[in-house]
Here is the input.
Amino acid sequence: MMTTLDPRSRAATRGWSDITIRNLFVIPTVAFLIIFNVFPLLYSLGFSFTDFKASSKNPAHFVGLKNYIDILADPVIWRTFSTTLWYVIVSVAGQFVVGFGLALLLNRPIPGKGLLTTLLMLPMMLSPVVVGLFWKLIYDPSWGILNYALGLGKTAWLTDPKLALYAVAITDIWMWSPFVMLLSLAGLSAVPKHLYEAASIDRAGRLYTFFRITLPLVAPILLIAVIFRTMEAFKTFDIAFVMTGQPAAELISSRLYKMAFQQWQTGPSSALAYIILIMVLCITNIYVKYLNKAKER
Amino acid sequence: MRTATKGLLAGVSLLLASSTTVLAQELTILWAEWDPANYLQELVNEYPGAKVTVETVPWPDFQTKAFTEFNAQGSAYDLVVGDSQWLGAGSTQGHYVDLTDFVAANNLTTAMAPATMKYYSEYPGGSGKYWAVPLEGDALGWAYRKDLFENPDEMAAFKAKYGYDLGVPQTWQQLLDTAEFFTRPDQNLYGAAIYTMNAGDAIVMGVENSVFAYGGSFGDYASYKVTGQLNSDKSVKALEDYRKLFTYNPPGWGNAFFVETNTAFAQGQAAMAMNYFAFFPSLVNEATNPFAKSTGYFANPKGPNGDDFAALGGQGISIVSYSQNQEEAKKFLEWFIKPETQKRWAELGGYTCDAKLLESAEFRNATPFNEAFYQTMFKVRDFWALPEYAELLTEAADTFYPYVVDGQGTAKETLDKLAATWVDTLKSAGYAAE
Amino acid sequence: MAVVSTRAGRLGNRLAVAAVIVITLIFLSPIYWITSTAFKPLLLSTTVPPTIVFEPQITPFVKLFTKRAQLTGPVDQATYDAAPWWEKLVLDGGERLSRDGSGEVVFSAYPDRFVNSLIIAISSTLLAVSMGTITAYGFSRFRVKGEADLLFFILSTRMLPPIVVAIPMFLMYRAVGLNDTHLGLIILYTAFNVSFAVWLMKGFIDEIPKEYEEAALVDGYTRMQAFYKIVLPEAAAGIAATAVFCFITAWNEYAFALILTNRRAQTAPPFIPSQIGTGLQDWTVIAAGTVLFLLPVAIFTFLLRNHLLRGMSFGAIRK
Here is the structure.
């Protein structure tokens, strides 16, 4: 629905012209973002081609693509990437299932719907570091309420190489499903009621209604939610770093942090950041193409 | 209207003028967020000169925040209470002010305990150049449950099984035996709680404790020789025994640092707990440790070959070379090293490094752990203090963790791998390492 | 799904409501755990097995607002009796209150940080939502050259992990004197949130049929009037959702708040998790700080709940 309005329509000649409004509305924001981001982006891009370490007084030496090649040849980095990719898939899928499922359940007149929705959004309103700390306590084999409440004995959620990643993913899903839920609710309520009435008159089944009517109309908002959650999932740092040091659950952001702020390898860490950026760009590109297709009905 | 504006402008400029003069008499100290920083703030409130404020940063972010400021040559902080390992970076990269003359003028090498000057202040080792005034002495020590150790039934059972009396472990073998003896999962009691967190200071410091006690080393800090030192037979045995000690810890014990070891001890899960002395006050306090009255403390036991060492912690206070108040900062340090100030610092809870105070009977009896602390401060050894220490630390943590916690590989393989990694890192930093 | 007025439909409805309530209770149990920790004495927060029933106290909240130190010896009885009730709570917990030169109790940094958070989050949310909405409208209704690329650029500003831009951002801010200022963080959070705001608002505005505005223009409204009177109200749900998300992001941001600010303009998130005293993580104080910090966000969202759920109404014009 990206049709434009006819700038020559009668009323548009009064008041500000469409061109003025368009420029006034769009240019400041874009300019602001460009100015704000250009220095940091160029800075880190520049350093990614050097061997610079912010902690030493040695000047930066240009090393071309060496940092990129070293990183791409490092098996530890690839293991971390695949761990992160799997984590993103599990986490975003989980958020989607839980969030959209909750929205479907809530999409009806319920007493206290406003209160329920606000309460369900509480996990999202916590600081990620606090979430990491408290879930670390909750997952603790001895002091944690999870093992106790579910009778799981001494399961070591955060230190068992097989479980650690899923433990972090569960926390992430818990925290961000409300995001998907809220956007889904907004999208669901945008579906015109008369379409449902028409479908029920035509004796359409529940599943048919869902897949042919609801889903296509909710898709644009849902995809925006998924795009942003995917981007954020790739950047997950706080909760994972606080909760576990298990290498099997190491995410790429943690490795980046260690490189940049514990080892002070400014050059190589910038290169890694750009590799991550390119990956996320490609994945997001695919999503955006789907989004554009979903909008053309 | 115009007179009002003039008045306003006059008022504002007066405010600015007075605020700049106020700023000249303000000092800012940067430290980490913990109780000693609160004690320091209380102490500096009594300083008769400038107004001193202690700014704090959470521990995990302390190094990040401090060095971001230093690397940008920022003047936000006048003094910093840096970790002993920061000395290399602080001095070679020009972040710290050279205090050699200050030290000489004030006889600090005799006034402060020798180990503290060596490790919290001198860099490079043995060079006679000093960069900090020791502020908070610290080292790794142990806490243990006296009630369990002095229980007659336990003592009898122990003697029957191991052939010697149950008591404070004097050697690491005894430490291991005692830990094994008290590991009873069905009673939710475990032998020990040690450091395992895959973060710079945690697991590496724990391993350091055992490696040093076994006569091993983390390399020759003067000649940068790593191979043959780090992965010597002694170091390998030490690491193997650290892993063995790990098996006597509570379940899922893969993310433990000072908070967790104290908590396990206070909740009665561990018969012994490893921790920095700086964190023992909460074990002395009955409100935070129900076993406070029956908690004893001992210094790191000897290794199998009789070597007697412990891992060092602690911080010294340095003047930031980008500060705009260096004269005032020096005056502050002169006040800080006075015996009265050091006594007051100890009273408030700070871990003074003043030699006379440390040796006094008054100090050694002031808390249940001061005696062990006093003994430990004479046998401490530290990690690398090079500017690149953080890289070495991170690499070590990453390498030790899979072996100690997940049991992957052998101790020899682990240390060989770390030695190779470290040699690479040191070489690419320009040191003649091997 | 739409509500159908049959008996099966009503039963389905009741089942759904029951399911929602059960799910909500389970979902919120960690929140309950955090809240209950805020009222426990410190020792009970890490017992084996975990303590569920206990006698609540508000000591953690007293501790949250004060600077404290461990007691190094038993408290003198006279001092204890003379202390006000809240100080007695702290003394019972094994700590004493820090006092400054004139004997006054020293407050912790929490109140200041809380206020800073309010100022910074509210301002940046207002800015981000306004800028996002108008830019989204611009992209939605008008032909903009290179629109797809510009939109993708806007999206990409949120793709880099914040860690990597921390140092250049620090240097940039230092150079223009924005370090440790409220304005600095406000600008940063606005920049951070505006990309999300643009995309989300565009998603909502695209759903509003352009026929509404065209009808208004035919009736004699100017474009701007059509924007204010028709598009904005229709997009209220989107604006509410965007505002809530932007506020939450700014409210809970940790990394840049830590690096770019010191004691003048720092917000609460770096403060709350750092309560470690001497060697024991004070879970109760962290929980207390979290509970209080949660209130403004929760209240804000609750006030907007009707807008959030209003959705889009489809009036007279049908497609």
Residues 64-295 of chain A form a domain with the MetI-like fold fold (CATH 1.10.3720.10). The CA atoms of residues 289 and 295 of chain A lie 10 Å apart.
